Prior knowledge:
The complex is a heterodimer.
Chain A: E1 15-16, E2 22-27, E3 33-37, E4 41-42, H1 54-64, E5 68-70, H2 88-92, E6 98-106, E7 111-120, E8 125-135, H3 139-155, E9 164-172, E10 178-186, E11 193-198, E12 202-207, E13 213-218, E14 225-230, E15 236-240, E16 246-251, E17 257-262, E18 269-274, E19 279-282, E20 290-295, E21 301-306, E22 313-318, E23 321-326, E24 334-339, E25 345-352, E26 355-362, E27 368-370, E28 378-382, E29 388-395, E30 398-405, E31 411-415, E32 420-426
Parallel strand pairs in A: 3-5, 3-6, 4-6
Antiparallel strand pairs in A: 1-11, 2-31, 6-7, 7-8, 9-10, 9-32, 10-11, 12-13, 13-14, 14-15, 16-17, 17-18, 18-19, 20-21, 21-22, 22-23, 24-25, 25-26, 26-27, 28-29, 29-30, 30-31
Helix pairs in contact in A: 1-3
Chain B: H1 5-22, E1 67-69, H2 82-94, E2 100-105, H3 112-132, E3 140-146, H4 157-163, E4 165-169
Parallel strand pairs in B: 2-3
Antiparallel strand pairs in B: 1-4, 2-4
Helix pairs in contact in B: 1-2, 2-3
Amino acid sequence: MKRILFLVLMFFVSLQTKAALTIEITQGVEGALPIAVVPFAWRGDAASPPPHAVGDVVAADLRRSGRFKPLPTDEMLARPTRGEEVDFRDWRALNVENLVIGDISPNGPGGYLVKFYLYDVFRGEQITGYSMPTTAQDLRATAHSIADIIYETLTGQPGAFATRIAYVTSQRDAKGKERVELRIADADGYSPQTIVSSKEPIMSPAWSPDGRKLAYVSFENTQPSIWVQEVFTGKREKVTSFKGINGAPAWSPDGRYLALTLSKDGNPDIFILDVARRSLRPLTRHGSIDTEPAWAPDGKSLVFTSDRGGSPQIYRVSVNGGEATRVSFEGKYNARASFSPNGRMLTMVTRVSGQYRIATLDLETRDFRVMSTGRLDESPSFAPNGSMIIYATRVNDKGMLAAVSTDGRVQQRLRIQQGDVREPVWSPHHKQERIR
Amino acid sequence: MKLNTSAWWVIALSALLFAGCSSTGSKGDDPGASVEDGGASTMGANQGGAWTGNPLDNPNSLLSTRTIYFDFDQSTIRSEFIDVLRAHAAYLNTNRSIGVMIEGHADERGSREYNIALGERRANTIQRFLEAEGVSPSQINTISYGEERAAAFGQDEASWAENRRGVLAY
């Protein structure tokens, strides 16, 4: 008797969803830099203003980083929009250290020209200024780029505002049927879009280093398979579908290989797949569980989770294979590690007194720090500039996303209205195209 | 109304004998005895305690237990489920054309891909048990859902215990 399975799978590409993520800072920083971002002026027809308040988007980005404390607009003594209107005494009086002003002008059909200037208030001089052509559709992206420029100019570290996050959502309908979606949103939670929708589990999204593809695990057809999908076109390919586990895909820094977990030979081991040639080579061979590979930024080694020592711990192995060395020693449960962009730190899930939390391990000093305070925190990953770690948490039985600054001082929570959110991953830098 | 183990076995075995006679042949050829998972199903009447329908549908059979539970971070089969798995092995040995999908599941704690591996370990333990009881490997498929398909949704030990499970799906 052969079982007949009726699987109804529907795939939607680029479906707009209204359930926006909202981000709230749950723990701020003392000593954040006081800055003022004056609302940008609109130089065009007052009856048809631009669709987004660029100055507000910039200020919100800077506030979310925890490094800046933007002055509320109602506390401003003046609202200059041109350099000649700036009187630095207005801002020194409020102890504002830096000032941002700007304006938006019409620039051809559907186009805008956004100009902004950044000033050092105490020196009384301009630090930088840009003129950026854009469109209505890209206006928010332009605002995020402005925030990136300001952040990098003032902190010396690249910003990560003009990036995206991918995450998995789960919702149940009135009959209890689950719908799982893979979504992408801007790093501020705005404009979430569904790129895969399924009745079966979706897991482990991973951005390609160029930010143009996502690898993920899908259980459609009651078999876990690894897929690679182009983010901007929705075009996708199944890259592995062996018997057993096909899981935990991780791109090599050059984008040529996927490290992944297969159990086709009897138990889970790490393999390296040449994505273009579809050739596979084993990286680990061990009778225990080996899974959750992550590449070092130099591509020369990987870390992974293994219970070869009796409990899950993090191990490191050369990209050429060979003996793996244990990396994590704190406690009895450490899993799902990934590297900071500079390769110096790992973030991972750790168990502390029965609670699952996010930790960092400094690979040079061996300093191990628990960064989160939840009971069921998981799936940590670094922002592309290393400033924040995003992870999944549970609040009141609901899956949510949260972020913590790498120094542990700023905590944020990202909410969506319905359903569970999990498995956040931050995109690389350089968002070049929009999803159609 | 509680039956002792030997009474269970009488029922289970008589059910198996009946199943051995009736479930060959394609569905629809023999509408009096065939039973389908979906859509309409037919079954014989219950005569003096002997179940005469598909043994999988007999609520008094050990075969009606399709889910077994595991301890935290463990994949060993608990003693209370050994008879259940033996009944499934006997059923599969009698019905060589029937296949079973063994699903392994984990509770939500810890990382998701590691839980996929734990779920597979549980499914594999059940598979090995059935094979040791003589079931042909060709009758068995396994899949691990890790923590992705919870049966209970609370964040407490009672829910977690319900989620650490293996399911035999026919």
